[in-house]
Write a structure and sequence with these properties.
The protein contains 19 helices and six strands.
Length: 466
Amino acid sequence: MTRQKKPWGGRFSEPTDSGVEELTSSLHFDKRLYRYDIEGSIAHCRMLAAQGIISSEDAEKIQSGLLDILQCIERGEFSFTSDLEDIHMAIEKALIDRIGEAGGRLHTARSRNDQISLDMRLYLRDEADNVLDLLAGFQASLVDVAKREIDTILPGYTHLQKAQPVLLAHYLLAYWEMFDRDVNRLKGCRERINVLPLGSAALAGTGFPIDRESVAGFLGFPAISKNSMDAVSDRDFVAEFIFDASLVMMHMSRFCEDLVIWSGGEFGFVDMPDAFTTGSSIMPQKKNPDVAELIRGKTGRVYGDLIAILTVMKGLPMTYDRDLQEDKEPLFDTVDTIKACLSVLADMTSKLKFNREKMLKRAAEGFSTATDVADYLVMKGVPFREAHGIVGRIVRYCIEKQKDMQSLDMDEIRLFWRDADDDIYTCMSVTGSIGARKIAGGTAKEAVMKRIAEIDSDNRTDQVQT
């Protein structure tokens, strides 16, 4: 096979080894950046012409040629070959083939080092917006289900042991809060992504009289990089995005873990829609929560992407090194994974069916209102540690007698606290336990509905501002 002459080949006396070409080519994965590479090149071209660095005639040819290449790629008619190394070289060669000598002037005053940083920032800025939109959709699903299940009672757990009864809506809003922190982190990450590196050239900046601010304005960047060496070597924004995505995946995984457990026959709290489950190849009765399990599994995949980028970056000397080619596959994998998982999970969540009767029955088991009885004694003047001991002895008595607390008569209760009165039974009920927790952030219906109203109000404000 005849290999293409490299644009940088003047220094070299022999062609690149074919094995090296295969190893070093990134075109098979970085070709997804084509739109951003062309967008950045058009902005650069316009600036070069405005500054008199290239002629307006050449600029028109370059822009027309780039738009033609863009259309050709989007029609699926562009040939990507590995000997062209990367998306930049593929587009530049295609441009020169189309318009001749003028195409060779496009690379004036820039390097592939600042060019790829620009492409990555343009790409990730868009994808951060896409992920933020998907997060908003998932949060909306959680709120919708919370409204629908506002009276559904759930046994709350610590250490996977029954602890205290809560509203299912309160549980769902706990995940809303987790994902809201994710939203805020991603918004901050997006601000740090949104910085123009172009103009840094290879590492030292360029001697041409370029206008970086005009390029930034054309591409919608509110800021330009302040140090050319940092700009071409910086991949903090990539690592930060993958870290933020890892937390999103972790939060999804925790939610999915609950759904997997709750869908099992031993719990039977939730029924997942058939469209989001699969069967067994051998056991005809099976309905497996594969979507939730896969999201749980794919979380480890994104963690691996994070470790990959951190490992690539940890030992690099200043400034640009070819190791940085390895930033793209972990990033692309993270973007694809988190988008797919958020989209499917939001849809599945909206269709979950909860077994309200079973959840209520289980919420009343396991002495889940014992803390309420202790709190009741404290309100009657008993020190909390003493109240804790009294209720602990009541629980032990119930276990020995195979009773629950509400079935105890007054004489039995007075064996442990002689001043007991009939109002003690109120705090032993599941509804009484939940209703007592009216504080901000509590599980009482009043508190949960107030939080839902706050979320709805904030969403309306955000929509107006948008």
